[in-house]
Amino acid sequence: MKIRELSRISGVSTATISRMLKDPNSVKESTRKKVNDILKNKGLDKDFNIKCVKRIMLIIPDLSNTFYLDLFNGIVSVVQKNHIPFEIYLTNESIEEEEKIFSRIKDNRDMGVIWVPASDKRDKLPYNKNSNIISLVDRNLDFEDIYIKNLSDNFSASKKATDLLIEGGARNPIIITGSLNLSNAQERKDGFLESIKNHNLDNGINRVYYGDFNNSESGYDIVKKLVKEKIEFDSILAANQILAVGILKALKELKLSIPNDVSIITFDKLVNLYSFYENNNISEVVFPAFDIGTHSASILLEQKTFNTPKQICNYSAEFHLKGSEKK
After folding, report:
1. Confidence band (pLDDT; 50, 70, 90) for 37?
2. Cβ pair 253, 34 in contact under 8 A
């Protein structure tokens, strides 16, 4: 069916239909619905590209974490299948850089964005909600104008990981997490403390320590300081992969064996390159980043209007237990 024929059947001008195909949001909702219903009833909706998103951009802090790499690969699998242009930008955890990126695409209304926010605290969003359709991933921001969220169930994952450490024999567990500006760092701390409370280990001892999710040396320094000050611990929940790198390095230098001296579980996959223990048998809490990437991209490509309903997708963790959680 040609545009002229569609115009005759629908009563909508060819100019309006052409404009709708280029930018669906430039046409009234009632007009879009009228044309869409005709195409759907005739089984021709796939022959006309009337979706809002025709390009996808990924905005992430960096590519150093395996979660981001898997997320990237999931998105690429979708855009390649659908022959959609794709771009990626790194913010290096800078809100200012985010603002620059969003300002460059504010007039590109056919651009859908998959966004992992930078870690700093913010008072406003770096974009106009009517400029692009945004799919937020991993780090939750509590703004009304974010309609699509893909979030990991960090609280439950952290609670279960801590349960495993305690049930494996730990009696003095600690968590090394990131800045509380980050929702995932906060949620992992909260899940840890819930397990501590449930196992009656909430006895006034400080069990929460704060590092930097982007700096392995912060995990290293915390472990070294704890040992130097003779603060006892027998297990560690490392709240991300980067922290785990520094933690493992410190434990090796201190000649503390895993799991005999210290049991440990880390969030994210530990690539062999990062492991400072020869056996690499470190238990991991892993979220399905590849699937999150495919789902995020697919949701964007399904959008036909900026007036999208609220969509929140929650993902459960997988536990790769390799023995480091048991004493």
Report:
1. confident
2. no
Identify the residue with better confidence: 121 or 173: 173
| Paired tokens of 28 | 């009234």
Strand stretches in 48-186, DSSP E: 55-60, 86-90, 111-115, 133-137, 148-152, 173-177
Strands (E), the chain: 55-60, 86-90, 111-115, 133-137, 148-152, 173-177, 208-210, 235-238, 263-267, 283-286, 311-315, 318-320
CA distance 120 to 297: 25
Measured at the alpha carbon of residue 145, what is the angle toward residues 77 and 111, in degrees to the nearest 5? 35
C-alpha gyration radius of the chain: 24
Residue 170, both tokens: 């730990």
Candidates 88, 136, 84, 89; CA nearest to 110 is: 84
pLDDT digit string (tens) for 115-135? Answer: 999 988 889 999 987 788 999
CB atoms within 10 A of CB 274: 20
Which of 36-40, 44-48, 217-221, 223-227 is predicted least confidently?
A: 44-48
The whole-angstrom separation of Cα 91 and Cα 24 is 30
List % helix, strand, coil for the chain (3-state, nearest 5): 40, 15, 40
Angstrom distance (rounded) from CA 307 to CA 327: 53
What are the distances in angstroms from CA 292 to CA 66, 70, 207, 272, 308? 13, 9, 31, 24, 19
State pLDDT tens for residues 182-202: 999 999 999 999 999 999 999
User: Does residue 278 surpass a pLDDT of 90?
Assistant: no
First to last CA, the chain: 69
